[in-house]
Amino acid sequence: MTMENLVIQERLALLRSAMQAAGIDFYMMPTADFHNSEYVNDYFKVREYFCNFSGSNGTLLVWQEGAGLWTDGRYFIQAEKELEGTTVDLFRMLEEGVPTIEEFLKEKMENGQTLGFDGRVISAMNGKRYEKALADKRIQFAYDKDLAEGIWTDRPDFPAGKVTVLGEDVAGKSVEEKLQETREKMAAEGADNLLLTKLDDIMWLFNIRGCDVECNPVAMSYAYITEESALLFIQSKALDSKVQEYLAGHRVIVKEYTEIVEYLSELSGKRCILLDNRYCSYMLYRLLYGKQNLIEKKNPTEILKARKNPVEIANMEKIYLKDSVAVTKFIYWLKTNIGKQEITEISAADYLEKLRREIPEFLDLSFPTIAGYKENGAIVHYTATEESNATLAPEGMLLVDSGGQYVGGTTDVTRTIVLGAVSDEMKLHYTLVAAGMLQLSAARWIYGCTGRNLDILARQPLWNIGKDYNHGTGHGIGYILNVHEGPQNLRWRFTEGMTEAVLEDGMLTSNEPGLYIQGSHGIRIENAMIAKNDVKNEYGQFMHFETLTWVPLDMDAIDERYLTDTTWALLYAYQREVYDKISPYLTEEEREWLRKETKADSTVILKKGSHEDTMSV
C-alpha cells in the first residue's frame, strides 16, 4: 500500500467523524463547482481530495462502513488505478448490474436517515431526483454542509482571475443584440426573469472571458436578466477599470458574486423565473422554490451560443487551419525523430504546446494534452505523470488528444500516430475507426435529426466486428470557451440529464470514434465539423457537415482491405485536401514528407460495380 493511499484512508476516517458529529449517515461529493461546471478549479476538487480519482466526471459517496465512486466508461481504467488501495469501490455507470446512485441509496439507507451534501455543488436536477427516489424512506437532506472545510486545511484559494473583454470584431454580436435574443426566448417560455448560472453562457452573453478554471476561459459569476435590466454577480477584484467601464457602457449592473443569495431572497412580488436545473444549484433552487413561479427549462443562451454566427465561423476556419498546421508539424517532428532522441509522453506534449504557442492568436490550451503511448492510449482521458511517463520507441502507436484556445476559436483534435511496427490487429482497428470518422464527416441528413440519428455512421465499422467505444462520438465545442459545449452531441444512448438536440446550422461538433484495448493500445481519431444547411426542396431542409480539421490520417496504420469503395474514396479525398490546405505553410522537407504521407501524387483506381473510375488524388 502506498503512502498516498494511506493518506486517503486517513482523510476518509476524518470525514466519517465529521459526518457522525453532524448527524449525517451518507455524504455525497460530485465533480462540480457552484455552477455544475464539467471542469473545476482546484478549490472545488473535494471528491479528488477524498478518493484520489482525478477524472472530470464522478461522484463519491461515503458512509460509515464504506465508500463508492460512480463514473462513466471514459474513466473505468483510470479509476481502477487511482482507487487501488483507497478502500473506495468503483461503480461502473451504465454497466449491467451496476446500480445508479439513487438505486444504491434507496437500497442502503434506512428510514429517517440523513443524506448530506454541499447544496451549492449539487444541481437542482440531481437534488430533486434524490428527493423523489428517497421520498418513501422519509430521508432528511442536510444540504448546507461542506464537510471538507474542517478537514482540507491546505485547500487552494477560491478563484478570482482577471476578466477580459472580447471585442465585437471577434464576438460577432454586441451585448445588446445577445440580450435582445435572450429576452425573446425568455418571453417565448413565459418568463419575465432569467437566473443564469452556467459560466460559459454568462461569458458569451456579456462578451467577456475569465481564467478561473484551467483551460476554460470563464469567471465565477451569476447573471439575472429581467425585461429591463441585466445584473452580473462577479468578484469586483476580478474587474479592472476598463472592464468596469465596458460593463457600465452596456448598462450591465455589477454586484458582488456573494450577493446572489441575498438578492434572490429579497426579490419582491411573484415573478416567473426561468432557470436551468442542470446548472442551477440545489441551494439556490430551494431558496426560490415556493416563493417564485419557476420555469425549469434549458438556458435560452445555450442554443444561441451553440449556433455560431458568420464572424465566429470565419474566425474558426482561420484558426483551425493554423492549429492543423501545428499538429501536422508535430507529427512530422515525431516521426522523423523517434528513435534518434529521447522523447517521452510529456516531452511530446510539451513540443506540441510549443508549436501552438508560436501561433500569434494563441491564448492557452483548451484542455491538458492527452498523450498516451501503447497501453496508456487505452485510458480514454489519460494524463501522463512523472511516474507513468512512458518513453517512446520506434514501435507501436501514440494517441494524442489536444487543443488550443485562440483569439478566434477553440480547437480539439485527436490523432493516433504510428511510431514503428504495429500488428495486423492494430491496423484493422485503426482502419475501421478512420472509416467511421470519414463516414460521419460525409453525412447528409434532413433537418430535425439529432446526434442519435447520425451516431451509427461512426460506429458501424466497429459494430460490424463486435467492437465499440464507451463514450460519445461527438460533442459541441465552444468559441474561445469550453471545449465541451451543449446542447448538441453525437451518441446513440442518452441517459437522464443528457440533452438530445436537433442539429442546427452553425453548430460546431467533434467527430471522434475510437477503440480501446486494455493493456495493449488505444485509437481515437477526431476532427471538428460545422453543421451547415444544404439544399431545401419539397422533402425539407437537407444538411451536411463542413470539416474544419485538416491533419493527415496515418497511412502506416491503414489496411485498405478493410475499406469499402466509399470509405476508400473518402480517405483519399480527405488526404488530398489536407495536402492542398497545409502544404503551403510547411518547409520543403515537411512538404515532401506530407506529400508521401497523404499519397498526394498517386493515382488510385476506384472500383464501382462493373466498371473502374480513375481518380487522381
Count of helical regions: 18
The CATH superfamily of the largest domain appears as: Creatinase/methionine aminopeptidase superfamily
Strand order of the largest sheet: 4-3-2-1-5-6
The end-to-end distance, rounded to whole angstroms, is 57 Å
Count of individual domains = 3
Key features of this structure:
single chain, 617 residues, alpha+beta, Creatine Amidinohydrolase, Chain A, domain 1, 3 domains, 6-stranded mixed beta sheet, 30 strands, 22% strand, globular
Describe this entry's structure for a reader.
With 617 residues, the protein is of the alpha+beta class. It has 3 domains: 3-150, Creatine Amidinohydrolase, Chain A, domain 1; 164-306, 3-Layer(aba) Sandwich (Creatine Amidinohydrolase, Chain A, domain 1), CATH 3.40.350; 310-616, Creatinase/methionine aminopeptidase superfamily (Creatine Amidinohydrolase), CATH 3.90.230. The chain is built from 18 helices and 30 strands. The longest helix has 28 residues, at 310-337. The relative contact order is 0.09.
